[in-house]
């Protein structure tokens, strides 16, 4: 099982590997490298026909996908930097509010609902990895992977002839990184593996909420 000793070692190992950036290999594809337990150095030509990156990642705790590799003790995500510019995702809090009948007065609605923005992991060349399952174990080290936007009793007045909605806008920052994987027993000769070129789309900062109004003839 995962011991404190292993944990301390993995910490040192992580610090080492963070300083020594990912070995330059085909930049668009994920690949896996074995590390020597004693020296913390990559094992030369270690990839051979070992387990696939998919099997390595699916051996992480929480994955629901089958893996040919034994269950890993620990998987840790580490960012190698931004991969592209920020973009936004918008979500509607609660339901849109209509005032499109014959009312001459405002329709007022108070929002108490909330919505969440989550992170997603992916690999360029495969979708066969259970990232939702393993993300909890992968994300240690990231300050937050999920943000929440609350209605907070925001009261919306929708005038006659309009409809409106209360939206939350979240910035996302795409990143590339690698995943350290630690096994209780050797996998193809080694306790430590690292999968490179894993992509993460994570929320950046907190979501911003705002009301939005349109005439009844226009789509929200
Ligand atoms: C109706 O809502 C608008 C804002 O959308 C507000 O300016 C106006 O005062 C409201 N009217 C009444 C009667 O509450």
From TrEMBL:
It comes from Jaminaea rosea. It comes from the Eukaryota. The lineage of its organism: Eukaryota, Fungi, Dikarya, Basidiomycota, Ustilaginomycotina. Residues 1-21 form the signal peptide. Keywords: Signal. Residues 51-77 have a biased composition (Polar residues). Residues 36-77 are annotated as: Disordered. This is Uncharacterized protein.
């Amino acid at each position: 099982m995962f011991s404190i000793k292993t944990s301390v070692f993995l910490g040192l190992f992580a610090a080492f590997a963070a300083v020594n950036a990912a070995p330059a290999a085909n930049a668009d594809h994920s690949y896996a490298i074995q590390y020597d337990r004693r020296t913390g150095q990559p094992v030369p030509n270690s990839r051979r026909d070992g387990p696939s990156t998919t099997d390595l990642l699916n051996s992480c705790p929480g994955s629901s996908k089958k893996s040919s590799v034994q269950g890993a003790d620990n998987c840790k995500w580490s960012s190698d930097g931004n991969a592209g510019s920020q973009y936004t995702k918008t979500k509607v809090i609660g339901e849109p509010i209509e005032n499109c009948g014959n009312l001459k007065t405002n329709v007022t609605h108070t929002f108490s609902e909330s919505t969440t923005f989550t992170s997603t992991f992916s690999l360029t060349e495969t979708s066969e990895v259970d990232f939702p399952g393993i993300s909890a174990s992968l994300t240690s080290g990231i300050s937050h992977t999920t943000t929440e936007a609350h209605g907070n009793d925001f009261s919306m007045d929708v005038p006659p002839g309009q409809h409106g909605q209360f939206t939350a806008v979240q910035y996302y920052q795409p990143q590339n990184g690698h995943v350290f994987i630690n096994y209780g027993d050797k996998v193809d000769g080694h306790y430590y593996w690292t999968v490179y070129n894993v992509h993460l789309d994570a929320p950046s900062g907190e979501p911003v909420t705002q009301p939005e109004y349109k005439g009844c003839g226009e789509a929200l």
